[in-house]
């Protein structure tokens, strides 16, 4: 289990056992991280993740609070959970995106110009370890969109843009819960740009395939881990 996942579970346990009640302010970051035996960076990412699904409310200059946890509030974030693991639709979207974008990248390798290469390098240079998750995902969207547009097929670009927009939540969740997400994404993007600059269509397509498949694999594994406890609870003990 990733360190951030562990932090999320521990905060959730504090809420479930009543140690943190609705509306209550969390202890300062340093105190809470020491109490749970976690690094402050892991604690910070866990708080971000729980803020996304409306469990925590981060108030700038005031502190972090447990929300009211009212059903209405939590239902607003329910689509987030549904997007991730209620069925296979999000995985199917990633599979379609992987197939189509790999081909789009191969097409782009034959047509891409130096200005687009320079733009792609500028995009990768604008992101580093200090970039937050929202910034990373915004970079990822712009990066992939620029490559697909370089393929020169407007219909394909529109189709992939639509598919990509439906996977944003999953990409944010991956960035929040998977360690080294920024470094991994940047390394893969830099390799892809290098292949495009060499006009190596086959290599570029392979790198795009692996890049997208990595998110697919993480999402499938994460959803499986989340569902296992529920499935285990559903199994009734055998009668003696």
Automatic annotation (TrEMBL):
InterPro entries in UniProt: GntR_C, TF_FadR/GntR_C, Tscrpt_reg_HTH_GntR, WH-like_DNA-bd_sf, WH_DNA-bd_sf
Keywords tagged on the record: DNA-binding, Transcription, Transcription regulation
CDD domains: WHTH_GntR
Entry-linked Pfam families: FCD (PF07729), GntR (PF00392)
Residue ranges of every copy of the HTH gntR-type domain listed in the record: 1-69
Molecular-function GO term, any one: DNA-binding transcription factor activity
Protein name listed in UniProt: FadR family transcriptional regulator
């Amino acid at each position: 289990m990733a360190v951030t996942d562990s932090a999320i579970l521990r905060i959730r346990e504090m809420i479930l056992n009543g140690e943190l009640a609705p509306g209550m302010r969390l202890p300062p970051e340093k105190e809470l991280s020491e109490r749970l035996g976690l690094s402050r960076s892991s604690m910070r990412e866990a708080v971000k993740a729980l803020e996304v699904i409306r469990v925590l409310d981060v108030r700038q200059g005031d502190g972090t609070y447990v929300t009211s946890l009212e059903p209405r509030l939590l239902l607003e974030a329910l689509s987030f959970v549904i997007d991730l693991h209620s069925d296979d639709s999000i995985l199917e979207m990633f599979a379609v995106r992987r197939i189509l974008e790999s081909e789009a990248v191969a097409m782009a390798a034959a047509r891409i110009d130096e200005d687009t290469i320079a733009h792609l390098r500028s995009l990768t240079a604008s992101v580093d370890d200090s970039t937050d998750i929202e910034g990373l995902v915004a970079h990822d969207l712009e990066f992939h969109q620029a490559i697909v547009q370089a393929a020169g097929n407007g219909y394909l670009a529109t189709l992939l843009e639509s598919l990509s927009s439906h996977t944003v939540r999953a990409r944010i969740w991956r960035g929040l819960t998977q360690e080294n997400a920024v470094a991994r994404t940047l390394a893969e993007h830099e390799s892809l740009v290098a292949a495009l600059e060499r006009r190596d269509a086959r290599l570029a397509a392979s790198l795009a395939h692996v890049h997208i498949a990595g998110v697919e694999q993480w999402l499938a594994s994460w959803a499986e881990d989340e569902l296992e406890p529920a499935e285990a609870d559903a199994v009734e003990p055998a009668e003696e």
